[in-house]
Structure formats: C-alpha cells, structure tokens
Design brief:
2 domains; 47% helix; two-stranded antiparallel ribbon; 413 residues
Length: 413
Amino acid sequence: MSIAEPQTDPAAPSATSKRHLRFLIRCTCLIAAVLCLLPLLPDTSLARYVPAASALVATASLLATRTLRPIMVLGLIAALFALFRHRWFCRWACPVGLCMDGASCLGRRLKRKPSLGIQFGYWLAAMTLGGAILGYPLFLYLDPLALFSGIFLTARYSTVPLSWISALLFAVLLIACAFKPNFWCARACPLGAFQDLLAILSRYIRSLFAPKTRTPAETNAGYRIARRTALGMVVGAGCAAAVRRIGPERAPSLRPPGALDEATFVGLCTRCGNCIRACPHGIIERNLGEKGWAGILTPVLSFENDYCREDCTRCTEICPAGAIIRIPPDEKSNVRIGLPRVDMDICLLSEDKECSACMRWCPYEAISYIFSKESYSLIPVIDPKKCNGCGACQTACPTRPTKAIRVVASVLS
C-alpha cells in the first residue's frame, strides 16, 4: 500500500519566482533613479532621463509642441509597451509605485481598508492631454516621475526657495497610501491612468479585428470610460484655452534661455527641478507665485549673485518635456532672455559718483554711456541688438539693497 504524495501547485513556484524577480527589478530601477538624481555622479544630464521615462510626459510634450525631440523617445517607447502590456511600467519599473506599494503594504498590516471611490487619475490624465492639444498640459507636474525628481532638490539645493515642497507632497502621498492602501496607484496617479487608457485603446483596436464576443456589460463599461475620457479632454482643452487667453495679460517671468513662450512654458514645465540642478552658477530658482499661482514652482532666473554665462547651456540640455529648447553654445548670444532696465533714481551716476561697473562687466559690449543735458549726468544706454539679458550688469551693479539696473523679461524672450 503506497502513501499518496501531497499534490502541489506547479504554478506556485513560478509565480513566487516572478514576484521575486519583479521586486528585484523594481528595486534596481529605484536605485538607478536615485543615483541619476542625487549629486553623486559627474554627469548631471542623467537626471533628465527619470521624468523623460514617463509616457504621459512624452505624449503631452509631443502634443503641446508638435515637435518630436530625441528625449521624448524614451517615454514614447514606454507608451508603446503599455499598449500591449497593461501597466507594465507601474508593475516593473516605476520607482514611485514601489514606494507607494511599500506604504500600502504597511497600511494593510495595520488593517486599513483599501482606497475606494472615484478614480480621478483618469480626469487628471484626460484633462492634461486635452490641454496639451492647445499647448497647455494642465496637470503635467503631477506626473509621478516629475514629482520624484523634484524631491532631490533638497539634497543639494536646500537654500532654493520651496525646494522642499516636492518632498513634502511625496511624504503626504506616502501617508495617504498608509491610511488608504493603493490610494495613489489605483485612484490618483495620472501616469497609471494614462496607461489604463492606452490599454483600453489597444483592446478596442484589437476588437475591431476579432469576433464579437464581448458581453453588453463589457461594451457599456468601455463606452463609459470613453465618454469620461472624451469629456475630460474637452474640459482640459477649454481650461487651456482660457489660461492661454488670460496668460499674456500678465507680465512674464524671467525664464532660463531657450524657454518657450510664457503660456506654453507654464503648462509644459513639469517642475522636476532638473534645470536648477544643472545650473553650475546657482541662478535658477523656483517661482514663489509672485506673478500668479499658475506658474508656482516653475524655474525663474535670479541675478543677485551671479549671471548667465555666455558659454553655458546646461539648463537647455536637461529639460525632459521640451519646455526649454536645447541651444548650441555658439548660438547663446542670439537667444533673448530679457532686457535690462535702469533706474536713474538709484544709479550712482545720478549722484555725481563715478561708476562703470555695468559697462565693464557686460560680456557682449552692449552698454554705453551718453551725456544727458536734462540731468547733467551720464546715463547707461543698452543696445538691444547686442544684449541678450544675461544679467552680468545686474550682478555687477554696486547699489544695495536694490539694484539700479535690473533685467526684466521682454516680449521677445
């Protein structure tokens, strides 16, 4: 009489091995992303590949700029894979997803119930895409990879105003996932929702060439998602049109060289902080919302302590969304950043004092002096054909605390 051996599920070991392999790959991707973003490696341009890997960033950038740039290829490849493998990026590569899964796991151990309710990630993704069609992706800065990139500004640039805001928001999301497991990935993440939309699109295309086997319930669910996506895109396009109409009425901010027009730039900028990290002279800061909340956390230039060097184009080489166009160093002088404005009420020349700092420090020889018979003093004059608004004159100006010469954004910037 033989004793029957206990039967085992042959699929169990393979499923466990797959889970272990997936966890190992996700950890590797997380470590690689951290190494790219931390100021440890000599090549700072690696930071751009983290937000550029987002399918949502690449697609919205392509729709908004109507231009295919090499940096977009990485995200578009991710989008192509998402058509055939549902949420493969979330399950295998997303560093934010791994962190949120860890917080959700803690929440489940604490007997917290998973997050249920409206999947507003669909609305965020749809409105972003709808706005991108009109050149203003509304919520692109909520992309998880852009948010993850912004966290690491505090590692080296803790003095940059609001450099900690991305880290604070990320911490809030971790706490939310601990209280409501899967809140971010299942309900709120626009990148995950965009991958869901791509999977739905793929199933629809395949259904056109397959026998009609879907049930009416499945068909109605697909129609509901399609209607919701279409409505979200229409709303996003309407909001983008309103913002673009209102935007030009406000004075533009002083942006890095190569930045797109103000309305497009504010929408397309992911607030990832890459340009701040790349600048070797520390003249790029985060906007604190002085000229409207729409541009908060976007990069602006500050020439209080240094200026934009004539041979430096690093910030133009690292933008993942195309909000800042790449500029060859030999064309830097032809790219208008802004124009200086002189306040003669502050200028030392109006007080019969000798000063030629702005003229001596100008690398483009764009400043000269003329004698004014009205004030009986010398007045600095800027040649707009030579000046690109690098800020050297403002940095060199000796007046304190307010500079007598300041660079402001011009219509041509």
